[in-house]
Write a structure and sequence with these properties.
By secondary structure, this protein is mainly α. 71% of the residues lie in helices and 0% in strands. The chain has a domain at 7-90 and 129-151. The protein has helices at residues 7-11, 15-32, 38-58, 62-88, 92-96, 114-151. It is elongated.
C-alpha cells in the first residue's frame, strides 16, 4: 500500500480550528519575546505560506486566492493587535499621569526623554508591530503564490 499525500487534507481543515491554533501560537510567540512581537512578525512569513496554499486550494482563480490571502493576513495582524493592546495597553494611562516618571519603567529611551520615549514605544508595540506582521504575512503569501503560480499555472494538482 502506497501512501499518497493529498494537500487538501492539510489545508482543508476547519477554518475556526486553524484560527484558534494560530491565536494560541501567536500568543506564545508574544510571550517568548516578553511582550515584544519580534517572533510574531517572523511567524507571519510561515502563516503567509499556509494562508496562500489554503486559499489556492479552495478559492477558484488566482485573483480570488490572492484576495483571500490578503484577508487572512489582515485577520492575523488583528490578532497580534489585540494581544499587543492587552500587553501594552495598561501603560497608556501613564502617559497622561503628571506624577509618574516613565524613565523609571525600564523601557528604552528611544527619543532621549522619558515621556516621548514611552509614547514612541507604545506606538511601536501597539501599531507598528502588527503592521509589520501584516507586511511579513503578505510577503510570505505572495512569494508562495509566485512559486505556485509558476509551477502549476492551471491550478492545484489533484491526487487520483
Amino acid at each position: 500500500m502506497r501512501f499518497r499525500y493529498d494537500p487538501a487534507r492539510t489545508f482543508g481543515q476547519n477554518a475556526v480550528g486553524a484560527f484558534i491554533a494560530y491565536a494560541v501560537i501567536d500568543g506564545l510567540c508574544a510571550a517568548l519575546g516578553m511582550g515584544v512581537p519580534f517572533f510574531c512578525i517572523l511567524l507571519g512569513f510561515s502563516v503567509g505560506w499556509f494562508n496562500a496554499l489554503r486559499a489556492w486550494h479552495f478559492v477558484p482563480g488566482k485573483a480570488g486566492a490572492m484576495k483571500r490571502s490578503l484577508r487572512y493576513a489582515l485577520l492575523t495582524s488583528l490578532v497580534t493587535l489585540v494581544i499587543m493592546v492587552v500587553v501594552w495597553g495598561k501603560l497608556v494611562p501613564m502617559v497622561f499621569h503628571p506624577i509618574i516618571n516613565p524613565g523609571n519603567m525600564g523601557l528604552p529611551l528611544l527619543l532621549y526623554e522619558p515621556k516621548p520615549s514611552l509614547i514612541g514605544w507604545l506606538v511601536l508595540m501597539i501599531v507598528v508591530s502588527p503592521f509589520l506582521q501584516f507586511l511579513m504575512t503578505v510577503f510570505g503569501s505572495f512569494l508562495t503564490f509566485l512559486f505556485v503560480f509558476n509551477r502549476w499555472p492551471e491550478g492545484p494538482p489533484s491526487v487520483p
